[in-house]
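Saturday, quiet lab. Running sequence design on the structure tokens for the scaffold JK sent over.
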């Protein structure tokens, strides 16, 4: 499964920028990688893990703005249609593999 985090946060004031940076840093700490600006993705081994991840993101989500999470299957993720651009290097290497041995 994949968890997508899509967000739109205010960044006009200095404090809002700080809150944005902290939120983004916490997403990275939880294993999310940037797919596009304000769209981050992370693999989840199962739905229970995804539900625990939702609770974690809720715990550090900022009070203002818009943050959305969605869980999709690997098949749905693989069927994503790219109109412009290409997959990132990480997406090309990992693909839909559940376990990568380095």
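Result came back. Writing it out in full:
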């Amino acid at each position: 499964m994949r968890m997508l985090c899509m967000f739109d946060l205010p960044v006009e004031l200095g404090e809002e920028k700080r809150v944005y940076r902290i939120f983004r840093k916490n997403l990275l700490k939880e294993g999310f990688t940037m797919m596009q600006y304000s769209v981050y993705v992370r693999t989840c081994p199962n739905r229970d893990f995804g539900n625990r991840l939702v609770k974690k993101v809720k715990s550090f989500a900022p009070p203002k703005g818009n943050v959305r999470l969605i869980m999709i299957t690997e098949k749905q993720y693989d069927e994503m249609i790219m109109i412009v651009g290409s997959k990132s290097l990480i997406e090309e290497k990992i693909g839909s593999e559940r376990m990568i041995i380095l």
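Notes for JK: The first strand starts at residue 2 and ends at 8. Helices lie at 14-29, 47-60, 74-78, 89-94. Ask whether to fix the surface positions before the next round.
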